[in-house]
Specification:
seven-stranded antiparallel β-sheet, about 35% strand, PH-domain like, single chain, alpha+beta
Length: about 200
Amino acid sequence: MESYSLQPDEVVIKKVDQVIHKKSMFSLISGELMLTNLYLVWYTKNLIGKAKNIQQYPLHSIKVFNGKAQVKSEKKIGENPRLIIFFKNGQATFEFINKSEDEVKKMANSINHTVTGSTENIYELRNSSIPGVGKAAEVLKGTVDVFMDAFGVKQNKQNETINEKVAKKCSSCSAPISGIKGQVVHCDYCDTDQQL
């Protein structure tokens, strides 16, 4: 019976369950898709949880163009979202069952970060806040500041703290994280919390 064992220099970066590997002989079976620093691995599990039906793709075989790994998130109306990965010798399609489009985009971004070493995202994730609220708040604050200055109201700017934005790599998985200095942030890739 097969079982996937990590190599001594291999670490798990991201894992997603309930993923179907399309166009394989197991295309009706849901399994797990795991990204390591060396491979993209899809596998099913037997009744006692051991990996079987292992499909392994070396990350160095993923095409890169203009500094970006060639991975595509696709969502058609009425269907589950898909991740399409273009390799030097073909392509693989993975369907994410009962997952959001953002789950697929997170995996695509993780693959890009791992393959290219870039911190740039291929896909921007949807913000859970209402679109445009941030911009409206900036405009409103600017308007209030103008009126306060016009009426001679002094603002206490000495007590305002300057929020310094920081970007660094996660101490657990080396994925890019960012936020305000001193803030505790959550890594989307390995689910750890850490202070910037």
